[in-house]
Amino acid sequence: MKVRIKFAKEGTMKFIGHLDVMRYFQKLLRRSDIPIAYTTGMSPHQVMSFAMPLGIGVESDAEYVDIEITEPISSETAIGRMNDNNVEGIRILSFKELPEDADNAMASIRAADYEVRFRQGYAPDFPFMKRLEALYEKDTIPVLKKTKKSETVVDIKPGIYSFGGNDECIKMCLSCGSMLNIKPELVAAAVFASEDRELNEFALLIRRKEIYTMINNVLTGLDEIGGSIQ
Amino acid sequence: MTKTALSEEILLTIEKPARYTGNEVNSVYKDKNMVDVRFAMCFPDVYEIGMSHLGIQILYSMFNTFDDVWCERVYSPWVDLHRIMKERNIPLFALESQDPVYMFDFLGITLQYEMCYTNVLQILDLSHIPLMAADRTEEHPIVIGGGPCAYNPEPLADFFDIFYIGEGETAYRKLIDLYRNYKKSAMTRKEFLRNASHISGMYVPCLYEASYDDDGILSSFEPLYPDVPKTIRKEIEMNMSDTYYPVKPVVPFIKVTQDRVTLEIQRGCIRGCRFCQAGMIYRPVRERNVELLKSYAVEMLKNTGHEEISLSSLSSSDYSGLEELVNFLVEHADKKKLNISLPSLRIDAFSLDVMSKIQDIRKSSLTFAPEAGSQRLRNVINKGLTVDDIMEGATQAFLGGWTRVKLYFMLGLPTETEDDMRGIAGLSNEIAKLYYELIPKSERKGRVQIVSSTSFFVPKPFTPFQWASMNTKQQFLDKAHFVNECMREQLNSKSIKYNYHEADVSVLEGVFARGDRRLSKVLVEAYKRGCLFDAWTETFREEPWLDAFDACGIDPAFYTSRERSTDELLPWDMIDVGVSREFLKKEWDNALNEKVTQNCRISCSGCGARVFGGGVCYEG
After folding, report:
1. At B358, phi and psi to the nearest 5?
2. What is the ipTM of this complex?
3. Contacts of B11 in chain A (CB under 8 A)
4. Which of A1, A91, B324, B507 is spaced 20 to 30 A from B567 at the CA atom?
C-alpha cells in the first residue's frame, strides 16, 4: 500500500540537511513501528521517496515523503505514533493512502508556495512589493543562474505563477521540478538587481507553504491526492 | 522554540551546523531552575567522534537519572567555528540548553587519547575558563577529567581540578553530594577540593608535590597534607548487570562514526597482551548477564530506530554467552532488517558461520591482529594467536567465500629484530599463497586482497612495557620502509597492500602517555602556536610542537626513547589499578625471556585484580 506523509519542518530542524532528514525518517518509522516495506536483496532498505529537498535554513509547512507499507494502519494511529516519537521541529500533518497508479511525489511536482520575510536588519530600503510588481510587468526577467559547472541566463518570468502579500510577508508561487526550478532567492535577487542592489545571502527567511502537482491543468496540493486510512 | 547560542548567520556559514544545535532524539532537557547541579560532559573532539563514544552515553544517562542534576553535552567546535568563536569572543556552550559552559557547576572532560590534549585547552579557552586550575575561583566550574588517559593524568595536572580515576558509575554520586554541601555552606573552592580528595577514586593534582633529581627523573611525589591519600585506587563497577546503562541513547541527526546501538557485553580482557593498557587497567573481566543484554538490545533498537547493532568489548569471543546472544540477534535481525556488527571476534567456525548469515561475504573482509611478524615476538608480547590459528581461520574463510583479509601489526615492539619485521611480509604472503592453493583458478574472482597495516608501538603506563624504550621517529620510518621493501620481494606482492601510520604523531603520543606534570607548559605553548585536532591528519602539524618543546627547554626523548629502570619512581605511581607493580615487573621479565603467560580463565597469574572481589577471578 502506497502512503503519502506530509510534515512540517521548523525551528532548529531547519539546520538539518536533506540527507539527514531522510535518515531521521528511516529511524522515526522504526521507532514508531510503522509497517514499512523493504526492498529485497542483500542490503534491504526502506521503500521511501521524498518529494523535494528543502534547503538548509528554510522552514516548511508542507514536506512530503511517499512510503510503502506492508499492512494497513489507520492514519490517526500512524500520525499519533510518529508525533510521539518526533523531536521538536518535525510534525506529521497527514498520512494518506495513495491510489495505486499515483505518480510518486518526486516525479509529479510542478510548483511550490513560499512565504518570504526579511531577517531583522536586512529589510531593503525600497518598497519590495512595488518593485516586484514593476519587474513582473516586463516581458522577460533574465537572471544569471550559477551552477557548479556553468553560468546561464534564465528567464524566470514563466516560473513565477503568482505573488502577493506585502513587504512584511511576501507570498510567491514558483515553478519547480524538472522543467523549471525557481527558488524564492532568485526572484528576490532579481528585484534587488533591478534596484542595483545585491541581496545579502542571509537576508531572507523562507518558509515553504505547499507543494503542487498538476492535475487537468490545475495546480493541486500533493496532499489532496489520496485519502485517510480508517 | 528552541534557542541557539550561535546566530543563524553563523550556523548558515559553518560546516554541518547540526553539530551545534542539539535537540536530538533522546537528548535530555530539564528545567534548569529545578536542578541543583549542572554538569557539562565533554568529549574533546568533533561531534561525530564524540557522539560515537559509549562512555559518554553511559554517564549522560546516569547523571540525568539524578533528579538534582542536569547533564548536557559539549564537543570541540571544528576549526571553522573555532575561528569565528575566537574572533567574536563567543563563549562555548552546551548542546541542550545552549548556555555557556562557564555557567555550569562541573565541566567533565573524557580523555580517550593523548592527541586530544590541545583540544582540552581549546575547550577551556573557548569556555572562558582559566586554563590553569590555580587561577580559578568559586565562580568557575569544577573541571574534572576521566577516561583511560586519566590513569596517567600528570601531563594535564595543571589544567584539571580533579581527575576521576576509574569507572564513572560508582563515585560521582558522592562527589555531587559533596558539591551541594559546598554550595550551601561557607566552604571555599580549595576546601571543596581537599574534601573531594577524600572520596575514593578522586585525584586532586594540586594537593601533591613532585620533585626531580639532577637527571630530571622524578625523585619524590608526595601529598601536601596528611589527610590527602598517598595513593588513589581506581573505581570499578563490580556488578555489571545492575548498574546504569543508556537504554535511550541520544540519536544524532548527522552521520557519526558509530551510528548504531552499542551493547557493551563485558569489561576487561582475560588475554594479558603486554602492550595493551586496556587489558591491564580494566581488570578483572566482568561480564554482563546475557538475558539482560537481550532485553537491552530490543529496548534500545526500539528507542532509537537504529538499523544496526554492535557488540562492544575488548575480546568478544571470550564472552561466555556470545553464541546465545548472537543467535538471538540474528533471529531478531531477520524480522527487523537489522545489521549486526561484530568487532574483535576471533575467526573460527562459529564466527564465520554467523558472519555468513549477517554480512555480504563478497563485500566484507576478515581481520586478524597478529600484532607481530614472528612467533618469537608474539611470545614477547604475549599475543596468544599462532600461525596455525591464522592459517586455520583463513582456510575456513577462503573456503567460505571470503577474499579480503586485513592484518594488523605493530613496529617497534621491545626486542624486535629484522627477522620479526620480515615475518610481517612473510605472513602476508603465506596467507595470499594459501588462497591460491585452496581455491582453483576456475572459482576465483580476481586476486585475493591482503591489506597489512602497521602501527608504531607506544609504551603505556600500567603495562609490562611501561619501562620500555620507545623507537625514535627515524627508527620507525626506517622500519616501515624495511617492511615495505620486504613486501615487494614477496611472490604474491601484487595481492598485498601495505599501510603504515604517521610516525611523528606516535612519538608525541609516547611523550604524553608516560609524561609528567612538567609537560603542562608544553601543551600551553603548543596550543598558543595553533596546535589543535592533533589526532586528525588534515590538521596535525609537527613544527609548532617541536617549537613548543624547544621553548620550554624539554627534550621529548627523555619521555620516549629512554629506557626506565624498574626501580624508577613513575609519574603515575600514585595510582593503584589493582594490578601490582610486582606483576608488571614479572611480566616484563617474562617478555624479555619470551615466556608466555596463560590467560585468566586457564590459570590465575596473581596480577592483583582479585582485590576487587569479583569477575573472572572468582568464576567457578
Report:
1. -110, -5
2. 0.94
3. 15, 57
4. B507
